[in-house]
Amino acid sequence: MRRWIACAFGLALAAGTLGLLMPSCRADQSYVGGVDDLPLMPGLVEDTQSNLVFDSPVGRIVEAYATGRLRVDGVHRFYEEALPQLGWLRIGANQYRRDNEVLEIDVTPEVTDPARVVVRFSLSSGLGSAGR
């Protein structure tokens, strides 16, 4: 019985630790519109009016925008840590590949308020040589 309790405690501790280390696995996680498994970093608010989603049998294009009072390097760090856990391979500065999809994440300070950032998520798939 003690061994079972110790095992259960160890699993609970490991699960809690993983939850802290894996920002993309939170139960209350929001995702970028048009990409079911692309986490929206906490602190970012998606501008759903600016999103573009084109999906066809030969591929898809998604362009989404979000803003928030965050640091540029913090946003990059979040996605550098979260995306590999979701199967994305970094192929360049702010570029990731998974299967036949290429994701680019551009982060820039907002023009009118440099303490805020604008994040552009651009995903394309199956559409020729994009990102190659």
Please tag this protein with its features.
disordered N terminus; 132 residues; seven-stranded antiparallel beta sheet; two-stranded antiparallel sheet; alpha+beta
Give the averaged pLDDT, no decimals: 82
* Estimated helix fraction: 10-25%
SSE arrangement, N to C: HEEEEEHEEEE
Structural class given helices, strands, pairing?
Answer: alpha+beta
**Rounded radius of gyration (Å):** 18 Å
Task: Please describe the biggest sheet, giving its number of strands, its sense, and whether it closes into a barrel.
Answer: 7 strands, antiparallel
How many β strands by DSSP?
9
Q: Into which percentage range does the β-strand content fall?
A: 35-45%
Counting DSSP H or I runs of 4 or more residues, the number of helices is 2
What count of structural domains? 1
Low-confidence stretches: 1-24
- Give the overall silhouette: globular
* Termini gap: 56 Å
What's this model, at a glance?
With 132 residues, the protein is an alpha+beta fold.
